[in-house]
Automatic annotation (TrEMBL):
Coiled coil: none annotated. It comes from the Bacteria. The lineage of its organism: Bacteria, Bacillati, Actinomycetota, Actinomycetes, Micrococcales. This is Peptidoglycan-binding domain 1 protein. Residues 66-121 form the Peptidoglycan binding-like domain. Pfam families: PG_binding_1. The keyword Endoplasmic reticulum does not apply. Keywords: Signal. Residues 1-28 form the signal peptide.
Amino acid sequence: MKNKILASFATVLVAAGALVATAPASTAAGLGSCTAYKQYSSGAYARFVPVNGSTPDCILGKGNYGNAVWALQKALKTCEKYSLAVDKSFGNETRDVLKKFQTKKKIEVDGIYGPETRGTMRFYGGESMYGSICNKF
């Protein structure tokens, strides 16, 4: 009986290790999910950036929903010029567009928004008489 319990426990540990090993680097770093967006600066330098509380060091992935996803989708559509529904829902379409963006920028292609992706992206900041305002973070 003891050997069966130990074997079962070992199986669980191996399975858990496999799950940890395949987790994206941004998740493994312990970053929380982006839950809102924050406007940084104003006027011609404005940009709406996904945040968790007051920090922009957060992640977004498939299944996330809300204003943080809106900021990401708006940036991808308006500033980076990808065809994408801006619906506040991070689904397959958003993941696939984000992968295209990551490939274009030659960064890790995982379909997850995190600090590395943020560093290469221009963010939507509003409209002016000259068109959309887009700025890097």
